[in-house]
């Protein structure tokens, strides 16, 4: 009878252990960055996951399909019901064109490893070559000089957010400069503190990013151009690159 009781206890213990399990569930397994400007340098996305099991979950390793993609992930064990994330960064420098990369996530469940594959994709637009004739005044052959304090802005927003940043500008030339803008994405609006800068005068641009006009969450890259004297030019010196990250 004693042996039978011990057998029952051992069997129940084994069933209890067998019933314990950890499971990883991602909110999404594929992210499309859309169209990205090469000069942005890099874009990132957080793959968030939940441990839907009843024992702690550990990520053993995260591997990418090429060196252009870098992962960073939650290292500590995730308790049952807890959340973690894997941040994947793709380098756009020197990589114009379409891309599709895989990320293999290895997690430990009941002492055994299991794999889950995530994917990122998008299209990188190449850098534009600098036009040496930009800003040239053909009538006087004077080269006006409008300088911007920065040529890159990053916005971190939640859906529906609207945020603003400023860029200082200065007319370092010898003629008046009228300010306007071209190729503005639909979610960006820009206003100049003064529409015309006299020689030596300083001002600023207010750049507003409206997340309510961005159709989907994720990282969105675009650019616009600051134009002078109603002459449309596209040059690295008058281009402002925008990175807008929308996330709940």
Keywords:
single chain; about 250 residues; mainly beta; five-stranded mixed sheet; 1 helix
Please describe what this structure looks like.
The protein is mainly beta and 248 residues long. The protein is built from one helix and 17 strands. The strands form four sheets. The protein has a five-stranded mixed sheet, with no helix packed on it. Strand 7 and strand 8 form a beta hairpin. The N and C termini lie far apart (61 Å).
Helices and strands, with pairings:
Blueprint: H1 2-18, E1 24-26, E2 30-37, E3 42-51, E4 58-64, E5 69-73, E6 83-91, E7 97-109, E8 112-125, E9 146-148, E10 152-157, E11 162-171, E12 177-182, E13 188-192, E14 196-197, E15 202-210, E16 218-228, E17 239-246
Parallel strand pairs: 2-8, 10-17
Antiparallel strand pairs: 1-3, 3-6, 4-7, 5-6, 7-8, 9-11, 11-15, 12-14, 12-16, 13-15, 16-17
């Amino acid at each position: 009878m004693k042996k039978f009781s011990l057998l029952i206890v051992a069997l129940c213990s084994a069933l209890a252990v067998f019933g314990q399990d950890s499971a990883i569930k991602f909110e999404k397994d594929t992210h499309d960055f859309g169209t990205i400007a090469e000069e942005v340098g890099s874009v990132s996305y957080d793959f968030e996951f939940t441990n839907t099991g009843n024992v702690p979950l550990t990520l053993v390793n995260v591997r990418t399909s090429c060196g252009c993609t870098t992962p960073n992930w939650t290292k500590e064990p995730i308790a049952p019901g807890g959340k973690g994330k894997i941040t994947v960064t793709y380098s756009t420098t020197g990589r114009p064109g379409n891309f599709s990369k895989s990320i293999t996530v290895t997690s430990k469940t009941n002492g055994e490893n299991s794999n889950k594959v995530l994917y990122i994709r998008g299209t990188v637009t190449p850098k534009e070559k600098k036009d040496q004739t930009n800003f040239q005044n053909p009538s006087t052959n004077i080269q006006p000089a409008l300088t911007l304090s920065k040529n890159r802005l990053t916005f971190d927003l939640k859906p529906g957010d609207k945020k603003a940043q400023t860029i200082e500008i200065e007319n370092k030339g010898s003629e008046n400069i009228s300010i306007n803008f071209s190729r503005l994405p639909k979610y960006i609006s820009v206003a100049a503190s003064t529409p015309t800068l006299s020689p030596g005068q300083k001002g600023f641009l207010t750049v507003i990013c409206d997340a309510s006009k961005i159709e989907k969450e994720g990282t969105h890259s675009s650019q616009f151009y600051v134009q002078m004297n109603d002459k449309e030019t596209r040059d690295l010196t008058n281009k402002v690159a925008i990175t807008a990250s929308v996330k709940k």
